[in-house]
Write a structure and sequence with these properties.
It is built from six helices and no strands. Helix 1 packs antiparallel against helix 4. The chain is globular and about 45 Å long. It is mainly alpha-helical.
Length: 115
């Protein structure tokens, strides 16, 4: 059971927004860092960690047996979260970003990600 500690941090937040691609990238990095006795079953764990929305996406893909590999899942999830070119929306997000008591480095990092 001690091997399961920290798995709750492997969930991804699928909420649409300008930082969804960054959240997905961070989620993938965490999943790829996973090392333990269950590493061989990462395909199944990866699907569990994507949550209900991720499973719904997976169920729409109609993958063949050969395509049911973790690399294929990553490719399709990345395609789903890939930002669309909407410069007006990103300008709106950047213009409305506020520090709200956060550390300056955190605020600047978020602003740079939007840019």
């Amino acid at each position: 059971m001690s091997d399961l500690i920290g798995f709750e941090s492997l969930k991804i937040d699928w909420t649409p927004g300008p930082n969804l691609p960054q959240r997905f990238k961070r989620f993938r990095q965490k999943c790829e860092l996973f090392d333990g006795p269950l590493k061989a079953r990462t395909n199944e764990h990866g699907l569990l960690w994507t949550g209900d929305y991720g499973l719904d996406l997976f169920n729409t893909w109609n993958l063949s047996c050969e395509e049911q590999k973790l690399d294929e899942y990553w490719k399709r999830y990345e395609e789903h979260v890939k930002p669309q070119s909407n410069h007006i929306l990103y300008y709106f997000y950047l213009r409305n970003i506020k520090q709200n008591g956060r550390a300056l480095n955190d605020f600047l990092t978020e602003a740079k990600l939007l840019i």
